[in-house]
Structure formats: structure tokens, C-alpha cells
Amino acid sequence: MTLTKEQYRALAAVVGGEHLSDDPVDLDAWAWRSGQAAMAQDFKPRFEAIVMPACTEEVQALVRLCNKFGLKFKASSTGWGSYCDPGGPGCIMLDLRRMDRILEINEENMYAVVEPYVIHAQLQAELMKRGLCCNVNGAGGNTSALPLAAHEGIGHMSASCGIGERNLLACEWVTPAGEVVRLGSLGSLGEWFCGDGPGPSLRGVMRGNVVPLGGLGVYTKAAVKVYHWPGPPSVELKGCSPHYAPVKLPPHFLLRYLSWPAEEGREAGIRRLGESEICFGVMGFNANMMAANVATNNEEELRLTEEYSKQIVGPGVCLVIAGNSARDFEYKRRVLELIVQETGATSLKAVEEGEVHDAFVWRFIRVTASIRETMRATGVFGGEVFGTDSYLVQSNFIQHSRKDKAELVARGLVYPDNTDPFITSLEQGQLTHSEVLLRWTPDPEVAQAAAEYVAKANRNAVEGHYGLPHHLWGDPQHDFFGPHTCNYTHWLRKIKKAYDPNGVAESTHHITAAE
Amino acid sequence: MALADYRSDMESCCRCSACKFIPLEKVTGYARANVCPSISRFEFHSYSGGGRMGFGLGLIHGRVEYTPKTAEVIYNCHLCGACDVSCKYAMEFDVLEPLYAMREECAKHGQSVPVWDGLVAGLAKGAPLVLEPETAEDDWFADLPVADAAERGAAACPSAVLYHAGCLARCTRAAGRTAAAAVTLLARAGLKVAVDKQAESCCGGRAYEMGYRAQALARARENVARFAELGIMELVTGCAHCYQYFKVLYPKLGVEHGLKVFHITEYLWTLVEQGRLSPTRPVKLRVTYHDPCHLGRLSEPWIPWQGVQRMRHMRVYDPPRVLRRGTYGVYEPPRRLLESIPGVRLVEMARSKEYAWCCGAGGGVRETNPEFAAFTAAERLAEAQDTGAEAVVTACPHCVRNLMEPGGLVSAGASAESRIRVYDLVELLGESMSGGA
Ligand SMILES: Cc1cc2nc3c(=O)[nH]c(=O)nc-3n(C[C@H](O)[C@H](O)[C@H](O)COP(=O)(O)OP(=O)(O)OC[C@H]3O[C@@H](n4cnc5c(N)ncnc54)[C@H](O)[C@@H]3O)c2cc1C
Questions:
Q1: For residue A334, is pLDDT > 80?
Q2: Which residue, among B11, B24, B316, would best test binding to A if mutated, counting the most A CBs under 10 Å from its CB?
Q3: Does the model's pTM come out above 0.80?
Q4: According to the CATH classification, is domain A5-95 in 3.30.70.920?
Q5: What is the chain A residue with the closest CA to B323?
Q6: Partner-chain contact A240 B327, CB within 8 Å
């Protein structure tokens, strides 16, 4: 299918001819499968057109035209996620790149209002100037700061700066039917401070467990909760890319990588770190991810992985402590020492001191090495993304992956990074989140094996009563879990039908209305 | 290498958008976080490094054809290399090299740019690649005590140093004056440089960038033969483009010359350090420095590599492949020189060194799309003005020209966009030297 002249003209009348294209060169720019969850095929289906609206009114007009013409649409912020791709023909892309303003930073009420194409690196830097900080999506500073773009909204600072479902405040939503809905305090007071009222609260409906990945309309503006930043307004860096390091690390920051001989050790460690509330950031890195952070190329990453693996005694976490004062810092440092002693943790000496330490702290806080950790090795990453739950549930859930991943490695299908499953601590340890990273070179055999691997993880989730993973992309996966989970799919489909009567919000990665 | 040879590099693009921004660690706020003029101007993903990798694969697979629209996207890029640097902060593949290859393919498929076809037609005879050259009343070296390399061969310059002025110096008065200032400074330091007065030819690099590889290669070979004939050992140039082409492009094309290639700022800084030049006259000016792309991130030496991927999944190579990441460009000498001038106060722009925003002249854009060249320059001038500087100083005649007359659309002097003055560093140093070495 290609757009008819009438359709093209109507879309152009909304955004102007300059901001619409159906030329193959513009379409194929997006059609390469990219590195996330890559399967065997080289290209994804093409969009019928790329449309670049500049404001909510234009988004609304475009969505209405989609309803009129029976065209599907999919919105994207930076367009990184593979869930930005259409599942088949008949879909136009709403590339929100032109909606890129920070509309407000409210220091008193601690929130920021952003449009979709503000990236975390920009928002975080502006916040730091004001003594504030936000949770940066663990995917990196390059992702949208809109709290409805990140899949889960989990990141390095989630220990102290919350997670997506919590940080989403008031928002503006263009529903698939083309209505503009203003939610939370925005709906009644025209203010952004609260997601649940006064005014209509539809957070559960329009976001839910994870964001609906384009399947439920377009979020044009949203407020995100921000937190206290214990550091200076900015930090001067020395060196040239990729070798940056702070000229001088601000006082009262410290990074450690702790590992334990067994999973029970990490559990006790994460629980104690959480209870004591000493961490500014926590990430459940493994030896390879630590090495990827420090290394500036793959050769170095290989070497450091080997070096770090020798010192890392088992499952571990990377953490940053930030003191609000010398006393606060000293207190936190001493508590950390105690936890290390009492849980029998081993600290990775290689990152404890000097420039490696200082550079790591800053890279961690700015979340700039995620691309290195995930994509650099092979150009492709995928795997399993589990949910948010207690440490024990997550850890039991993920244990199967050690064996299953080893099997894939033994068959030569994925990159042997020789590392432990990843578990990280959220909201000072009240919740945790886990993932297993697989990296590979796409080919049909690997694609098949990766699909089987995820299917096995899903069966494991059901049999072990571990709850829903976050990697539920599309009908087949939802339909697998629905019957085991109070038929939530029934309700999800009701929502989809109610808000998207014509089924125009492209739902390959969310859920369709078809029972 | 042909575009298809970069398939593996292009397939490594994960669409993370790093290529659109300055290296993320360096983002210090909302403003000036963009690094790619092309996507900043044209907005569509296809105009970014990542988007170009995407449709580049489409070209290889025959899904996208070489149409005028394809060419329009391919040529509306400054080839400034900023995308390449930002990508390689994290990733391990070449972004910029496939972009050169795409232009070559465009030319092969009959989608070259007419204005450039015309310019390149004269290249075989060494004609300058300058559109609408000003008629020079005099050669830039007239009245200067500078030897003609041709007349007496190497004997004329015992140091065997050739000053290569570049096309713009031969065709525009402003760049000619800067070239004259450069050799005057060298002479003051007691260096006897020579100029190939009658036979200096275009280096050919800009033709390569426009996709005319064969013509650029032929020019490179002739130039190298000429240098050998003249018996020179060192080449100094004030043009950042020429510098990069002699230093990086010629070896990349397989044209070895064995010369030591210097940019004038490297040379002058050494002379200042050695005490052979002492800027003494105060030049009271708050300035900011614009890094020319070809002198900065693009000037790392060419590192030839041929080999194979060592591990099935991980991108490690045998022999190890060292990627050029812009880390070791010429960033310090111009800054040290500026700081050596009494009265000059240097303030940095938000985007500098390896992640500097392009001036807008690069990639042949000034000739193919002046409006885009003006857009890019206007952004740079605004950024310079943000620093509170009275002048923006740079070290390349192409940058000077495009910042003074963005896209050639504004008449000489301070640009319409900005009241900030624009200087070549050599001019400032020259001012500070009046009255003796
Ligand atoms: C390497 C990697 C690591 C990751 N790690 C994490 C992690 O640690 N934590 C985490 O939470 N997530 C993670 N993710 C997923 C991540 O959340 C998204 O890729 C990214 O944050 C989304 O931001 P974006 O700007 O890239 O959005 P996009 O990629 O543009 O969009 C993501 C999805 O949201 C939809 N969408 C985007 N904007 C809008 C809008 N305005 N209105 C409606 N729908 C919209 C899109 O259709 C798409 O389905 C990771 C992804 C990758 C590729």
C-alpha cells in the first residue's frame, strides 16, 4: 500500500509539505532493523510516510485523518526502540522530533514538563543547574525524557530517583480517536504537579505495567517528578572523546562494585543497602558491563572483562554514594563499609581509585555508557526483560537463564560474555528488576533460538508463579500470559477498543483488540 | 572502498541517536546539544548519521535507488564528521567513511551535482575548486620576500619547506592576505619557505568529498610527483582542508608522499615555543576559537587496516582495528597560539574541539546549497556570540569565508546574522607581531 494523493495532500495540509515524506530514502532510513532484539530479516516493514508534527494540534489533526482514512499511525520520540517499527503495511510514522521543548522546571514542586524530543541528557543537565536531578532511563542519556517513552523508566538512579510509573505526573494525551485529554492536575487546574488529580486519573489505563509502546495514541507533553541533586551545577571534564574524566570529581561522591560468592550474598547486600538508604544510584552490572563502561573499544573491553572476572567473586552490583555534606558522606561511607564486612562482599579494586573511579562516577550519573554495554560488542542486543518485584522473586525467576544462556553460548549462537544475570535495586531496595542480556549476529538460527529462549523464560514465569515479565511485546505473548494472570488481556483489550475504536494506533508491540 | 564494503559497519548502527548529539557526557544543558547540522536543518532521520546508515543499506540491497532525491539527501551533509565522533564514544564502526562512499556511488550513478561537475572539469589542469573566483589584481605572494620553489628547486629553500596556500588564497583577496601574513610570519622567524608560484595546484580533496574519486586520485598523484620534483621534505599550509587531504586523504587513497605535513598553526606554535617568534603587541580582544573540522576531528592520521573479524559475534578484528575517533586532532596549537598573544582572552564555545559545530562550508555545501551553508554558519555565529566574545577566530580560509559571508549570501564583513568579527588566527598573530619578531 502507498498513500493515495488525497491522503498525502491531507497530511501535508497539516504539517506542511516540508515535514512529510514518502520517499524511499526517508522511509528506509527507519526501515533497517537496528540493533535491538534483532531477528533474521534485514529490514522491518516500511512506513507509508514519515510525518513530523510540531505541536499537539497537528498531532490531533493527523490522528483524526488516520481515523478518516483507515491509516495506522505510530509515534516515536527518539525512535530508538525496535517497538517504534510498524508490524506491517498501512502505517505512518509520527516522528515527534520537532516537539523538543522543556516547558517548565518547577523547582518548588519538583517536577519538569517536557515534550517528547527532549532527551534525558538535556533535562538532567538543566536540572543539575537548579540542584535537582531526574531518573535517567537505563538505556541512556540519549533517550526521551518524556516519562511515557521509556519502556519501564528504570535507570541507574532509580534507587533514589524513582521509576517510570511513579515519576509520571500530569500529562497531555492525544487518544487514538483524536481527542486531546489532559490528565491529573492538568485536567482540572491546568497545573502539572500530580498525575492522579484533582482531575481525571487514567495513569493505569494509558500506561499500566509498562508503556503501551505506541499502541494507545500519542503523549504530547508530560510532567516528570524530579529529585534532589547532591552535586554541583556542572562538572568540568578533561580529555577528548571517548576519554573523558572530571577535572576534579566533586566532593562526597564514591563508586564501588561489590560482588558476593553466591546469590544469597547479593540479596543480603542489596537489602541492607536499601534499608540504610545510602545509595544515590545502583545498577546490577556484571563483569562484562563494568568492563564495557571503562573500555573505549571492544579489544579493551575483552581484556578488562577477563581482568575484572578474576576479581569479581560472583553476583554483584555497582553503586554510587553521594553525600549532601562531609558528615553525611562519612556516615554513608561507614555504613557501606559495615555492609561490605557483614555480608562478605568483595570490592573491585580496579575501579576504586583514580581517574578510572572518577570518570566512572560521572559516566554512571550521566548514563552515557549504556550503548557500550549493550550494543558495542556485536551491534545487536536482546534477551529477557523481567518485571519489578522483590529480590527473591526476581532472583528465582532469573536463575534458569544461567543454564539456558550457557546452552546458547555452547551452541555458538550468542556472544560468550561469561557473565551473571543482572539484578538491580529500585527505590532503595523495595523493588528490584532483572534482565538477561544476549548479544549476537543476526541469522535465522539465532533468531529461532532466541525466540525459544524467551518462550522458555515465559513458561518458567508461569510455572514458578513469578509474575509478568516486561518483555511482553504483542498479542502472542499477552495471550500466553493472560489466562494465567486473571485474564488481564480481557481488560487490556477493552481499553484498547474503548479508546481506539478504529484500531488505528499501531499495536504490533502492544495489544490489538482482536480477542 | 565501495559502499558495499562498509555493509558490516552500517549494519552496526543501532539507531541510538548518539550521532545527532554532542557526546552525551558533554551535554551541559538544553541548548547547543545538537551536533549534526544536517538533521538540525532538515529534520528527517535520513539526514543523520544513523539514518544515512539505514538508507545506505537500502542502497546496497537495491531497495533505494540513486534518484535526485537520494542525491539531495546525500549531498546535504557537511561531511563534518561530528556524527562519527559522537557515535564512536560508544560504538565500534565507521560512520563517516560510508558517507564518502555514498557520494562516489552517486557520481557513478549519474547523480553528481552539476555545479561540481563544472568545477571538477578543470581539476586535471590544476584549476582551483572555487566557484566565482575574484579576479586577483596580483598574486597573493607578489611583493613578498618568498622564494619560488620551481625556480631554483630545493636550493631555494634549504629547509625544503613548501608553503601551500590552497585554492582560496589563489582566488580570493581575503584568503590571499592571510596566506601572505603566514609566510611573512615564517620569514620573521628566519625560515626560508618556498612557494610553488606558478604551478601550485589544487590538492583535489574537495573533489574526493564530492564523489569524484578518480579525479582526486589523479590530482593527488600529480601533486606528489611535483613535490618530488621540487625536492621538498615538509609542507606547511594555512588551509585546514588541504592539510587534512595531504595528511590523511592522500595516504587513504594509497598515494604515499613521505612528506611531513603541518598546519600553519602547528608550525607557528613551535616557533613561538622555541622563542623564534614573540607576539608582543597587545591585541585587546575577547575571542572564541572555532575548530575547523578538517584541522580538528578529521585530521587524525589515516590508519590503514585490512583484516578479518576474529570472533563470530564480537566485533574484534585480526589484526586489531584502530578506529579514528577524533581524539587526536589538532586542538591545542591554535589555542596555545591565541593565548600567546598579549591582550587576547580566549573563551570556549559550548561545542568545541572534537564535537565542534561545523562552519557550514564543508562537504561542498556552500556550492550546492548556500542556504544550508548559511543556516549552519548562523548557528555557529550565534553560539560564538553566546560566549560574549567580540570575535571568532579560526584557522581555515573556508571557515573564515563561510562565517563572514554565510553561504555566500551576505556581502563581506561581519555577517547579517551577527555582529561578531571573524579572523583567521594568522592575521591576529600578525597584528601582534608588528614591530619585530
Ligand atoms: C539498549 C537499550 C537499553 C534499554 N534499557 C532500558 C532501561 O534500562 N530501562 C528502561 O526503562 N528501558 C530501557 N530500554 C527501553 C527504553 O525505554 C526505550 O528504548 C527508550 O527509553 C525509549 O525512549 P526513546 O526516546 O528511545 O523512545 P522511542 O524509542 O521513540 O519509543 C519507545 C516506544 O514508545 C513509543 N512512544 C515514544 N514516544 C511516544 C509518544 N510521545 N507517544 C506515544 N508513544 C510514544 C514508541 O512508539 C515506542 O513503542 C532500553 C532500550 C535499549 C535499546
A1: yes
A2: B24
A3: yes
A4: no
A5: A297
A6: yes
